[in-house]
Design brief:
- It is a single chain.
- This protein is mainly alpha-helical and 251 residues long.
- The chain has helices spanning 2-24, 56-79, 90-95, 102-123, 134-144, 147-160, 213-216, 220-226, 233-246; strands spanning 28-30, 36-38, 165-171, 177-183, 200-206.
- It has a domain at 134-246: Iron/manganese superoxide dismutase, C-terminal domain (minor pseudopilin epsh fold, 3-Layer(bab) Sandwich), CATH 3.55.40.20.
- It is built from 9 helices and 5 strands; from the N terminus they run αββαααααβββααα.
- α2 (56-79) runs antiparallel to α4 (102-123) and α6 packs antiparallel against α8.
Length: 251
């Protein structure tokens, strides 16, 4: 009887461990051959939580199809180059593209960027109302004159990006806030060889059509304006402070 009880406890603890990894795992996992395999990071809220500003169908497809495809294609690219033994986060991977073998560098740049950019984007949004911290608001006023001017310039960067890409708000080396945009799945963290942004990003707006087309069709300016209703200012403020204090990006 005692042995059965022990075996039951061991089995139950194993179940909890597996379930915990499935529910709370990060964006990578170890495989038997020690190579890193990246996984799709879960959303921090239900797919309908951003309604009415971003509809649930768009969120479900955007995250569960588009972002998932970037994860799958990133893993595929890395698996095709068995001699590349990188063992780190997606952020570290795309921040050091010069170390990635040339034959898979473009695939890693595009798909790794797609993985990281989307996670950064989703975590910068929230159904919970919040406001910029006093420190961030002071920086906004110093850099742009007013919060409305920040929105105006950020929207212009989003709307003005030809084709697909991203608009970014970030902290420049002098400590001030700045705005830039990147094409495709490029990101400021990829360095000056890829992006001329030269900033630590704290907020982004995804302007690929799959981010807004089901609800807004060709009305990208309307999407850019509406997204301010769901910005996670608590997270953005934390990112700002981390950039100022640590000189690093906070996902």
């Amino acid at each position: 009887m005692r042995l059965k009880l022990i075996l039951y406890c061991v089995a139950f603890m194993s179940f909890l461990t597996i379930a915990g990894q499935a529910c709370f795992g990060g964006n990578e996992e170890r495989t038997e051959n020690k190579k890193m395999k990246y996984i799709l990071t879960e959303l921090e809220y239900p797919v309908d939580a951003l309604e009415p500003w971003i509809d649930s169908e768009t969120v479900a497809i955007h995250h569960g199809k588009h972002q998932a495809a970037y994860v799958a294609n990133l893993n595929k690219a890395l698996e095709s180059e068995p001699n590349f033994k990188f063992d780190g986060s997606v952020e570290a991977l795309i921040s050091g593209l010069d170390k990635v073998p040339e034959n898979i560098r473009t695939a890693v740049r595009n798909n790794g960027g797609g993985v990281w950019n989307h996670t950064f984007y989703w975590r910068g949004l929230s159904p919970e109302k919040s406001e910029p911290s006093p420190e961030l608001m002071a920086a906004i006023k110093e850099s742009f004159g007013s919060f409305e001017e920040l929105k105006k310039q950020m929207n212009a960067a989003a709307v003005g990006r030809f084709g697909s890409g991203w608009a970014w708000l970030g902290v420049s080396p002098d400590g001030k806030l700045k705005i830039c945009s990147t094409p495709n799945q490029d990101a400021p963290i990829m360095g000056e060889a890829v992006s001329a942004c030269n900033m630590i990003p704290i907020l982004t707006i995804d302007v690929w059509e799959h981010a807004y087309y089901l609800k807004y069709q060709n009305r990208r300016p309307e999407y850019a304006e509406c997204i301010w209703n769901i910005v996670n200012w608590k997270r953005v403020s934390e990112r700002y402070q981390f950039a100022v204090d640590k000189k690093k990006v906070l996902l």
